[in-house]
Write a structure and sequence with these properties.
Number of strands: 0
Oligomer: single chain
Number of helices: 4
Strand content: under 5%
Radius of gyration: 22 Å
Helix content: 55-70%
Order of helices and strands: HHHH
Distance between the termini: 81 Å
Largest sheet: none
Mean pLDDT: 82
Shape: rod-shaped
């Protein structure tokens, strides 16, 4: 062993990096899952847009971010047809 070399500090740094990496992977997985659910629940102005956005969100990290920043503007807004929305309009 080298004098002055402390293996416990290296192990601690690796553990910290591993935890940070796991948190980043988890955050991006949640982002991807939310974008996929939103994509499947909504309609778009053009029929092909839904398919194109599906392939776009499969691009790791960049795809879901593009969907949230650009794709939200391309969705068709749904009209509420329940009885409460008619009361609010009056």
């Amino acid at each position: 062993m080298n004098p002055g070399f402390d293996p416990s500090s290296v192990i601690q740094q690796l553990a910290n990096n591993f935890v940070a990496l796991l948190l980043a992977i988890f955050a991006f997985f949640i982002l991807w899952f939310i974008s996929l659910i939103d994509l499947l629940k909504n309609d778009f102005k053009k029929d092909i847009d839904k398919l194109l956005w599906f392939f776009t969100i499969t691009i790791p990290v960049l795809g879901p971010l593009l969907y949230f920043f650009i794709g939200f503007d391309q969705k068709v807004e749904k009209e509420e047809d329940d009885e409460f929305s008619h009361r609010r309009r009056r």
